[in-house]
Amino acid sequence: MTAQIITPDAGTVSGASQWLDAIKWDEQGLVPVIAQEAASNEVVMFAWMNRDALALTVQSGEAVYWSRSRKKLWHKGEESGHTQKVIQLRVDCDADVVLLKIEQIGGIACHTGRHSCFFQQLVAKVSLDGAGSPDSSQLEWQAVEPVLKDPQTIYK
């Protein structure tokens, strides 16, 4: 039997729900959220949710986040069309991190046009030739995943 997302009994987003009260919200009323592809288990995104975003996510079956920079709800894919269909919701042992198991529609989760927001890897600028670990001046972040679609064409 496949697990399903359960719609809360309260029909309104602002309605009090026991499952929402179980989350340990931070001082700003937010909880960190990890978006992970259900099929591959690849982490594609990290974002934040408030109570309304989490309730809307459950009600709609698509990821809705809280944009800290824009200070508003953000339905993932509202501009790009790259929505996230929620397959399963989980919470960690402390109830202070939410994990969304998702299907990434369109294959692009990142605003840079990449599959995942985690496309940069820490690498050594020079070959170590068995000399051990590099010092911090020899390290840099390097993009290791390709751009699948030019962001200029995504966000017109």
Task: Offer a quick outline of the entry.
This protein has two domains: 23-106, Phosphoribosyl-AMP cyclohydrolase (Ubiquitin-like (UB roll)); 120-154, no CATH class. It is built from three helices and eight strands, in the order αββαββββββα. The chain has helices at residues 18-21, 51-60, 151-154; strands spanning 31-37, 43-49, 64-67, 72-75, 84-91, 98-104, 120-124, 139-143.
Written overview of the protein:
- By secondary structure, the protein is mainly beta.
- It folds into two domains: 23-106, Roll (Ubiquitin-like (UB roll)); 120-154, no CATH class.
- 12% of the residues lie in helices and 30% in strands.
- The chain is built from three helices and eight strands, in the order αββαββββββα.
- It has helices spanning 18-21, 51-60, 151-154, and strands at residues 31-37, 43-49, 64-67, 72-75, 84-91, 98-104, 120-124, 139-143.
- It has a four-stranded mixed sheet, covered by helices on one side. It has a two-stranded antiparallel sheet with strand order 3-4.
- It is globular.
- The chain starts with 17 loop residues before the first helix and ends with a helix.
The CATH superfamily of the largest domain turns out to be Phosphoribosyl-AMP cyclohydrolase
Number of domains: 2
Give the number of helices: 3
N-to-C series of helices and strands: HEEHEEEEEEH
